[in-house]
């Protein structure tokens, strides 16, 4: 019998936004780069995007679908607390809709061997897990890590003092995703010594006995000193046969103690162990940091900023994720930029990054922080651990306004803020063409294949102009013509497809909407259907 699929239902689940694929406009005054290269591996194509993160993800879709190796997001937890930088009290069903819309776009951006990591607390974790199962598929669940976010209990707690958050990880495709080993620490290697000056280097003793039954594992052992050990401890077995023990001893892989009188131990050489540590699911603050340390780091880094985040994530936490999920040069995305921790860590670790942030702290927190990272003025966080010396840069983008706006009579018209280049790029994106205007051929503004092009103009094209276009395009190519008006019959030009703007695109998107953020006042109110509960599991 097939098990029923566990699925979340909530008010408004069937409602999906018709997102406008906006273009991104660079503000070169806010972009920032180091004055010179520090290493040959410096990265300058990182992106900081100011604007609504749902629209920004849609804007990235054409260029970055299938290219992002790792996504880390720290969305508002919907705990009911009012934070300075986020309204974190979104009604439960609205929070689920808003997260679903973002997760679907994030999934499309992930590479086939990519993964997504989400910080969440107990309040929404169970619902997020079921939602992630829907979007990513339950088979692609990787792990749910526990992060110890505080170093001392809260005496003011009403019930139990919460000292952890979760990091939920899903792969785009677990059959293609591979995790990295974590680097070994000096503390872990300290257990390896070389008590007998073995030329194979440091080693540590391993127990020769085990509880697992082994039929050849009960025999007496004679030490080099002459002492006879009658057998393994009661209920235990030697983990190797007598013949194997003799072979190991001949290879100097058995340690008998300095006097040759100890119970034998197997020498395990540091040079032969795996090069790293298998990641575990419990992350202590001693390993990856805690909220208070992260806040102190921000205070030192941004002394002139009066209001800092209440619970910023430590750089060590993001480093742990990127160590497991990425390699140098990979693309990392954070669509809830916050205080800029993900970009700062990715930059120091040699990963390319994209961050999106709508709040004004994009300018008051993130940009000043990243400048100090680039200029090697950030001495905290993971700087010393990764040997960061500065360098690289980022480009600052803002979302373009909506392509269409209403005139004084309530009609949708092309936004007056759009110049010809912006209009052409926006229409190319709407139609699925790559925007690459030709320097020599006026009608080649973009392409979809090697022989399929697009031409965007605000002209009212005459028959003669269309015929001239058709003649230039020729029989072996095709051209999509986007214009405000034209005269003549479209079927007279077999190599041309002619469409009017804005008429041909009006029904595709929600025009003029700039904010899909997690703020209650921006969200539509949906009355519950008669007899239906607000939320349930079916």
Automatic annotation (TrEMBL):
<dbReference type="InterPro" id="IPR002941">
    <property type="entry name" value="DNA_methylase_N4/N6"/>
</dbReference>
<dbReference type="Pfam" id="PF01555">
    <property type="entry name" value="N6_N4_Mtase"/>
</dbReference>
<dbReference type="GO" id="GO:0032259">
    <property type="term" value="P:methylation"/>
</dbReference>
<dbReference type="GO" id="GO:0003677">
    <property type="term" value="F:DNA binding"/>
</dbReference>
<protein>
    <submittedName>
        <fullName>Adenine specific DNA methylase Mod</fullName>
    </submittedName>
</protein>
<dbReference type="InterPro" id="IPR002052">
    <property type="entry name" value="DNA_methylase_N6_adenine_CS"/>
</dbReference>
<dbReference type="GO" id="GO:0008170">
    <property type="term" value="F:N-methyltransferase activity"/>
</dbReference>
<keyword id="KW-0489">Methyltransferase</keyword>
<keyword id="KW-0949">S-adenosyl-L-methionine</keyword>
<feature type="domain" description="DNA methylase N-4/N-6">
    <location>
        <begin position="68"/>
        <end position="364"/>
    </location>
</feature>
<keyword id="KW-0808">Transferase</keyword>
<dbReference type="InterPro" id="IPR029063">
    <property type="entry name" value="SAM-dependent_MTases_sf"/>
</dbReference>
<dbReference type="InterPro" id="IPR002295">
    <property type="entry name" value="N4/N6-MTase_EcoPI_Mod-like"/>
</dbReference>
<comment type="similarity">
    <text>Belongs to the N(4)/N(6)-methyltransferase family.</text>
</comment>
């Amino acid at each position: 019998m097939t098990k029923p699929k566990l699925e979340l239902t909530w008010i408004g689940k069937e409602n999906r936004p018709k997102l406008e694929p906006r273009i991104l406009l660079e503000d070169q005054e806010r972009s920032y780069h180091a004055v010179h290269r520090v290493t040959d591996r410096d990265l300058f194509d990182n992106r900081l995007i100011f604007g609504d993160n749902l629209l920004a993800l849609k804007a990235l879709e054409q260029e970055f679908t299938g290219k992002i190796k790792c996504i880390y997001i720290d969305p508002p937890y919907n705990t009911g607390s009012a934070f300075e930088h986020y309204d974190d009290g979104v009604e439960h069903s609205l929070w689920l809709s808003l997260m679903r819309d973002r997760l679907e776009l994030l999934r499309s951006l992930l590479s086939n061997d990519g993964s997504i990591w989400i910080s969440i607390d107990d309040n929404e974790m169970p619902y997020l897990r079921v939602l992630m199962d829907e979007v990513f598929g339950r088979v692609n669940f990787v792990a749910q890590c526990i992060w110890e976010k505080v170093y001392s209990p809260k005496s003011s707690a009403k019930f139990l003092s919460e000292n952890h958050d979760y990091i939920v990880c899903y792969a785009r495709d677990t059959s293609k995703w591979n995790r990295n080993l974590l680097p070994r620490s000096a503390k872990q290697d300290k257990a390896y010594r070389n008590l007998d000056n073995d030329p194979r280097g440091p080693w540590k003793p391993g127990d020769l006995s085990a509880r697992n039954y082994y039929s050849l594992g009960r025999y007496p052992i004679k030490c080099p000193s002459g002492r006879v050990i009658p057998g393994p401890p009661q209920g235990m077995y030697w983990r190797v046969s007598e013949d194997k023990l003799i072979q190991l001893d001949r290879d100097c892989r058995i340690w008998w103690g300095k006097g040759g009188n100890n119970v034998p131990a197997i020498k395990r050489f540091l040079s032969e162990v795996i090069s790293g540590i298998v990641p575990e699911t419990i992350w202590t603050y001693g390993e990856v940091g805690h909220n208070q340390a992260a806040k102190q780091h921000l205070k030192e880094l941004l002394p002139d900023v009066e209001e800092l985040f209440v619970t910023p994530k430590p750089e060590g936490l993001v480093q742990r994720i990127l160590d497991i999920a990425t390699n140098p040069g990979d693309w990392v995305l954070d669509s809830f930029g916050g205080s800029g921790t993900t970009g700062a860590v990715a930059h120091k670790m040699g990963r390319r990054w994209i961050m999106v942030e709508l709040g004004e702290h994009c300018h008051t927190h993130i940009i000043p922080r990243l400048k100090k990272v680039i200029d090697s003025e950030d001495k905290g966080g993971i700087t010393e651990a990764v040997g960061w010396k500065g360098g690289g840069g980022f480009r600052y983008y803002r979302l373009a306004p909506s392509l269409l706006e209403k005139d004084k009579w309530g009609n949708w018209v092309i936004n007056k803020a759009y110049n010809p280049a912006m209009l052409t790029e926006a229409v190319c994106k709407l139609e699925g063409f790559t925007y690459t205007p030709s320097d020599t051929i006026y009608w080649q503004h973009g392409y979809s294949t090697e022989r399929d092009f697009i031409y965007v103009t605000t002209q009212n094209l005459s028959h003669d102009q269309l015929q001239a276009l058709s003649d230039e395009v020729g029989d072996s190519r095709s051209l999509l013509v986007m214009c405000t008006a034209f005269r003549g019959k479209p079927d007279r030009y077999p190599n041309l497809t002619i469409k009017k703007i804005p008429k041909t695109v009006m029904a595709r998107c929600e025009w003029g909407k700039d904010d899909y953020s997690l703020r209650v006042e921006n969200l539509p109110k949906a009355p519950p259907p008669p007899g239906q509960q607000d939320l349930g599991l079916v």
